[in-house]
Specification:
Layout lengths: L6 H8 L16 H6 L14 H12 L4 E3 L5 E5 L8 E4 L14 E3 L4 E3 L40 E3 L11 E3 L14 H13 L3 H14 L4 H13 L3 H14 L4 H13 L3 H8 L8 H22 L3 H14 L5 H13 L3 H9 L14 E2 L2 E2 H15 L3 H14 L4 H25 L3 H14 L4 H13 L3 H14 L4 H13 L3 H14 L4 H17 L19 H9 L3
Antiparallel strand pairs: 1-2, 2-3, 4-5, 6-7, 8-9
Helix pairs in contact: 4-5, 5-6, 6-7, 6-8, 7-8, 8-9, 9-10, 10-11, 11-12, 12-13, 12-14, 13-14, 14-15, 14-16, 15-16, 16-17, 17-18, 18-19, 18-20, 19-20, 20-21, 21-22
């Protein structure tokens, strides 16, 4: 048995690393290894041995019934111990020997030492507060702070050189060489996997992987910039801008993030912001991108000039040109087109245009950015208020105008629109109350008050036309319907009211024409079908056609062709 003085040489043999080298990327040593070495230094790199062979040996040894794994990263094999005693675990690495202390190894149980035995049913008491990994066995006669044996239902696997674990390191409960938790994953591996998903067009998967990278390393500008690219590809431009801004904050000289921000700002129709990031000091500006910016600025300026003089057709043309340059996601440009279409009395097109503005993930420009003299965010709400009012959605109009006013309190145009919207909404409400009370003349006056504030409100014209018809003033009713339809050509209520008023005036040809338009718009409406039939019969009668056998029926026949339609309207009944 070696003497006590000889142990250091053997200890030096035992402290040699199991493998030739750790992870090539300089991954830290497994926390398990640090912990189980009793807080001492991690094993140093050995100049001998082959890491791949060691790994292969380790795997084969683990699959054998005669081996056991040790938390220190070593593989142990059961070998004969002291004659007459139970087998003990010994290191079997070639060319290496463990020193044998006099007597049996001892394991500290918290209050006393007990001899280790091979019985699987034996248990060792231990203070939970001093639990350390098993394998810290003390030589006899030497008291070292150790612990009792602790078992785990987790399996031990060998690392493959990925993540934060060295090749061949024993990892508890893992199957891929690294724990699944973000704390032990390799952010670079997550980023590379995210890049692959991005190239394949799987943007949701790419975002999930970039999120993992950022959760591990939140101060990494590259991860932020990559996440911005995936967000932009998924159409979430507002988030993409914020992510890029964070990347630039983390690394002010990161050129790729500046380029990406410039591109995003161009899509959002903010050329000044785009130029700031495209031409920042030390950055080589792309001539093609500079040309795009210049074209965008020119189109926006010409659009502003056209808006000032009310040349709405030119405004629409310039906005379409700006969108073609690349500003395809600008809420302000889309809102300007909606305003121009509204002024051109294309209300339904204007409403559809506004519906194309994303309701979520919208980028909110700072209060310093102006569009046509208004804060950019307030301008879109300013236009929305006008469109909502034109369509008779007065409550929505008031809400949008009030929001715009809160954002840009000093703007005169917004103040005027808010005042008009409130007055028109009040007039409509008052007129409706009077109409329901049967006070039709007073209701006409109330609607007229609203029209003085907004002379292009088709809803108020149509409401007043109904009042005129109740007063049997058919001609005035037709006139107000004409005004409403001039503003909103497909306004069904106005068409129905005009047809009925023309019928009262004996203008059956005009009534039939309106009913036919309504029949196309409302093919399943029985009331419209009956009204059309009655108007057609009256028209024939006014022209001297014999209609004594004609019978009016409430049934509706399905017409599938023009020939069947002609036969149906020419046959009796």
């Amino acid at each position: 048995m070696p003497s006590h003085s000889e142990r250091p040489s053997f200890d030096r043999e035992m402290n040699k690393p199991d493998f030739k080298e750790l992870d090539l990327m300089g991954s830290p040593v497994s926390p398990l290894l640090r912990h189980n070495n009793g807080g001492g230094a991690a094993p140093t790199t050995s100049s001998g041995g082959n890491s791949s062979n060691s790994s292969a040996d380790s795997v084969s040894s683990k699959n054998s019934n005669s081996t056991a794994t040790h938390f220190s990263g070593e593989l142990l094999e059961k070998s004969p111990g002291i004659p007459g005693s139970a087998p003990t675990n010994r290191n079997i690495r070639p060319g290496r020997r463990r020193s044998v202390s006099a007597g049996l190894p001892l394991i500290y149980s918290g209050s006393s030492f007990t001899g280790a035995t091979s019985s699987s049913s034996s248990s060792v008491s231990s203070n939970p507060s001093t639990i350390l990994p098993s394998g810290n066995i003390c030589p006899s006669g030497k008291i070292v702070k150790t612990m009792g044996l602790r078992t785990s239902n987790k399996t031990d696997t060998l690392g493959g050189g990925k993540g934060n674990y060295g090749h061949g390191s024993i990892i508890r409960g893992g199957g891929g060489g690294a724990k699944s938790g973000a704390a032990t994953a390799d952010p670079e591996e997550m980023k590379r996997a995210g890049n692959e998903m991005y190239k394949r067009g799987n943007f949701s998967e790419a975002l999930a992987l970039y999120d993992k990278s950022i959760s591990i390393s939140p101060e990494n500008a590259v991860y932020r910039s990559n996440r911005a690219a995936a967000l932009a590809a998924a159409g979430r431009l507002g988030e993409a801008v914020r992510e890029c801004e964070e990347a630039v904050r983390l690394d002010p000289g990161y050129g790729r993030a500046h380029q990406r921000l410039s591109s995003l700002y161009l899509r959002l129709g903010l050329p000044d912001n785009a130029r700031h990031h495209l031409c920042f000091p030390g950055q080589h500006s792309d001539p093609a991108e500079l040309q795009k910016l210049q074209l965008l600025e020119n189109h926006i300026n010409r659009c502003a000039d056209a808006r000032k003089i009310g040349d709405w057709k030119t405004a629409v043309r310039e906005i379409d040109a700006a969108i073609a340059v690349g500003a395809d996601s600008s809420p302000q440009l889309i809102a300007c087109k909606a305003e121009a279409l509204l002024k051109l009395q294309k209300i339904e097109e204007s409403d559809y245009c506004l519906s194309n503005i994303p309701k979520s993930e919208q980028y909110t420009p700072s209060s310093q950015i102006k569009y046509f003299g208004m804060v950019a965010e307030a301008y879109a709400l300013f236009v929305q208020a006008q469109v909502e009012m034109a369509l008779g959605r007065f409550e929505n109009a008031v809400s949008a105008a009030e929001k715009a006013r809160r954002i840009d309190y000093s703007n005169v145009e917004i103040a005027m629109v808010l005042n008009n919207v409130k007055m028109v909404a009040r007039a409509r409400t008052h007129g409706n109350e009077l109409f329901n009370a049967g006070r039709y003349a007073e209701a006409c006056s109330a609607y007229g008050e609203g029209l003085r504030c907004d002379s292009s409100n088709s809803v108020l014209y149509c409401n007043r036309a109904v009042c005129w018809s109740k007063l049997r003033l058919w001609e005035k009713s037709v006139e107000d319907c004409n005004q409403a339809l001039k503003i909103q050509p497909n306004y069904k209520k106005a068409l129905l009211r005009r047809a009925a008023s023309n019928g009262k005036l004996g203008r059956w040809a005009d009534a039939v024409r309106d009913y036919e338009l309504l029949r196309k718009e409302l093919p399943g409406d029985i009331e419209v079908a009956e009204s059309l039939h009655n108007a057609q019969v009256a028209l024939k009668k006014s022209r001297g056609v014999d209609i004594h056998k004609t019978k009016i029926s409430g049934e509706v026949e399905e017409i599938s062709s023009l020939e069947i339609f002609k036969t149906a309207i020419s046959s009796p009944g």
